[in-house]
Design a protein that fits this description.
Blueprint lengths: L5 H7 L4 H11 L14 E2 L7 E11 L4 H5 L3 H11 L4 E7 L12 H9 L2 E6 L2 E2 L2 H6 L3 E4 L1 E2 L7 E5 L3 E3 L2 E3 L4 E5 L2 E5 L7 H14 L1 H6 L6 H23 L7
Parallel strand pairs: 2-3, 3-4, 4-6, 5-7
Antiparallel strand pairs: 1-6, 2-8, 2-11, 9-10, 11-12
Length: 249
């Protein structure tokens, strides 16, 4: 897995996913368009806050009854795979039936068993069900929709590259997700990520945020000039720290 300690991963949960994305831009060479979800996600448990973990992957189908008959041991093998990987883990689930989502692999039983095996949640471009029970299990889910039935959902393949919400995810990649969506943390960003997210938040609080909130008694030209100057200070501070200007210039 990655280079971060359990304490560092826990600290990353203190920040929302947009803040993490801002930080990644400063300390990674990755194209930002390739590491975030391209399609809309739904966080069905926003009150639980962000989740952080390493990707374990599975491909499923709910519209075809044959895999369950032809490969009856797949669920056992899939769970063995989950158990073999150190946590914390996020199960990235590619549903071959999307956007139809005939049924859901994820419900109360799936949540409690995956949680027992060190998984903190799932990102699935399919459906989930038993929402209250999943919440009670402490298993977070970003999904496309809710569903009533499990239909013929069955694990087909696991431990392989998948694509969910228009974004490719490889096993072992570090993920950060919340109500805004998810981001794949590039390996070259991991070591400086906490430093970067703290710096970027402090930088905004010291410059561009006060420029838009402390405006009592100012007219429009004064406010615009102040905002422009604050953006320049923000960019200068970011360049000194990371060699990049950042979002506000």
């Amino acid at each position: 897995m990655g280079a971060l300690t359990a304490a560092q991963l826990h600290k990353l949960k203190r920040w929302n996913t947009p803040s993490i994305a801002n930080a990644v831009e400063q300390v990674s060479r990755a194209d930002p368009l390739t590491i975030v979800n391209q399609d809309a996600t739904v966080d069905f448990m926003p009150e639980t806050g962000p989740m952080v973990g390493y990707a374990v992957t599975v491909v499923i189908s709910g519209g075809d009854p044959r895999p369950k008959r032809e490969h009856p041991d797949n669920f056992l093998r899939y769970r063995e795979y989950l158990a073999s990987v150190p946590g914390p883990k996020i199960v990235v689930t590619q549903d071959l039936d999307h956007p139809r989502c005939h049924g859901s692999l994820w419900g109360e039983v799936g949540a409690v068993t995956a949680r027992a095996l060190g998984c903190v949640g799932t990102i699935t471009d399919g459906a989930i069900r038993d929402l209250d029970e999943m919440k009670a299990a402490g298993f977070k889910a970003l999904a496309r929709r809710l569903a009533v039935s499990h239909a013929h959902c069955w694990p087909l393949r696991w431990g392989m590259d998948v694509e969910v919400f228009g974004t490719k995810v490889r096993p072992g990649q570090l993920l950060h997700a919340d109500k805004h969506g998810f981001i794949v943390i590039p390996r070259d960003a991991e070591k400086r990520l906490l430093e970067a997210v703290r710096f970027m938040d402090d930088n905004e609080c010291d410059t561009v945020i006060p420029a838009g909130t402390d405006t009592a008694g100012m007219n429009s030209p004064e406010m615009l000039a102040r905002m422009q100057a604050a953006g320049a200070r923000f960019g200068a501070a970011t360049r000194r720290q990371f060699g990049k200007a950042g979002e506000w210039k």
